[in-house]
Amino acid sequence: xxxxxxxxxxxxxxxxxxxxxxxxxxxxxxxxxxxxxxxxxxxxxxxxxxxxxxxxxxxxxxxxxxxxxxxxxxxxxxxxxxxxxxxxxxxxxxxxxxxxxxxxxxxxxxxxxxxxxxxxxxxxxxxxxxxxxxxxxxxxxxxxxxxxxxxxxxxxxxxxxxxxxxxxxxxxxxxxxxxxxxxxxxxxxxxxxxxxxxxxxxxxxxxxxxxxxxxxxxxxxxxxxxxxxxxxxxxxxxxxxxxxxxxxxxxxxxxxxxxxxxxxxxxxxxxxxxxxxxxxxxxxxxxxxxxxxxxxxxxxxxxxxxxxxxxxxxxxxxxxxxxxxxx
Length: 327
Hints:
Distance between the termini: 105 Å
Number of strands: 2
Radius of gyration: 31 Å
């Protein structure tokens, strides 16, 4: 007897089983050049130290009146009870009179509070140095971009002007001009005098950067598109040379601080009773043996300011202008 085979029942075709959809890849926005520069700056211990010290000095200079009032003394107020008239006006107490009443001690003979004078001196010194740096950067950038972009006769005239300005013995001329001009605003005069002799250095840097940028494709495209010279300078060239300018600017500031201190030390800068670090160092030379703290305190602040700006400027130069050390 034959057997009958029953075919297997195949289930009707249905929809394909659902599988979990793969998550879309997460796109991370690309960091801009300034954010990358900030990240590299934070990775450098020396740059972090310089940045913190610079920030503290700027805050101290900006809040000088409040800090002086917090200490309880104005920078021109005498305290004859803090000095010994029988010892030539030397401060009473150890370390130049440092104590609860005078946080950094007092000035010999007059008894003026050193803390109030140091913070006010920071305001004066940083105001002159930063203002002079701004004058130098604006004048040097404008001159360098014009010389590098227009070329020809413009470049020849401006380059000879740079050479002529750099050939002057600037310190001697500064001393002469500061000595002749007497009844003027000393802070404004020092800013102008320092700025007049400081712009050719950054002008040469900007001129070289402009020469390397003005033949790039985006500049040629803007020129072909009908953009004028000033539009190209402002929108195409200046943003692309901003990195070296910023790096050079931070390296200019310590030199400006030292120049202001030197002029005040020589007696042709800020005049009493307005304090500055250079003036305080000059006055303290007569007491460096009997009251060394009077000499050390303003010298330490001047040293820290120059060191901090130098470290920050070196780091920014390496980050923003890596070719600067190979020119």
